[in-house]
Amino acid sequence: MVVGLALVAALVTALPADAGRAQAATTTRAEAAALARAAVDDDRALAELRGIEELDGRPVDLAAATAALGGDRRARLAALADALAGPAEPGDPPVDREASRQVAEQVLEADKYQEDQVPRPFQGALAWLADRLRPVGRALGRVIDPILGLPGGPVILLVLIVAAGGTATAWLISRRSRAVVTQGGAGSLVDPALDPDEVAQRADDAEAAGDLTVAIRLRYQAGLLRLARAGELVLRPDTTAEGAARQVGRPAMDELTRDFEEIVYGDRVATEADVRLARRAWPEVLGARSSR
Known about the structure:
The protein has helices at residues 2-14, 29-38, 43-50, 62-65, 73-85, 97-108, 120-148, 153-176, 196-208, 212-229, 241-248, 251-265, 272-286, and strands spanning 26-27, 54-55, 58-59. With 292 residues, the chain is mainly α. The longest helix is centred in the middle third of the chain and has 29 residues, at 120-148.
């Protein structure tokens, strides 16, 4: 307290009485004390406190008084607040502490020193969401905190996030263009060892049973096998439907491939129109008049 009083007295007496009087930021000592108390936890209050140039008409330098607070911020600002709430110099009339307390409460009740409130229409929903996400945040914290504690932790974390994002993107792309798994050729678009006539017959059976999605898939596989046997298509383990369409290079093949990908990969429900397209377009692609 003695140190605080001496500091305030020195600040008041060190400056000329007319220094910057016209442009000085003026307040009362009670308001300044309230700001000092608020500044213990509020950087906005600290900035406003440092901007004060006059207390009750006397020039002061509170910016210098609050410079380099460091780890003593709470103690130093509390001492400053107590000093500001007391008499400035011997002989000055004592400050009414009850009046000062009321002024301080009025200052601290200002909106800028209050915790931001969630808008009422969303408060319940956001609180519910926060409760549900809190366990996820704790789990992520247990994973992320040890990484951040390593040398170069933020960089390592960034690399891991980018790698995870790249892996997820690659998986999504491969899922769209993935090969249709068959009994004889797992992981390939179609097993080249299959008989295209047998596959086409299975397509007819599926269509008759009302399973149009399977019919479209099998008829597409049968068409690929026939193109491969005609030397118009090279089937490799990594050949995708899109890659096969590029090899063939015919508009009808592009239509068939688009339907195939939307139905088999995109989970679109196959329709009679898709079946009619397959029956019409495959003979065009193969250069034959087969009904398959």
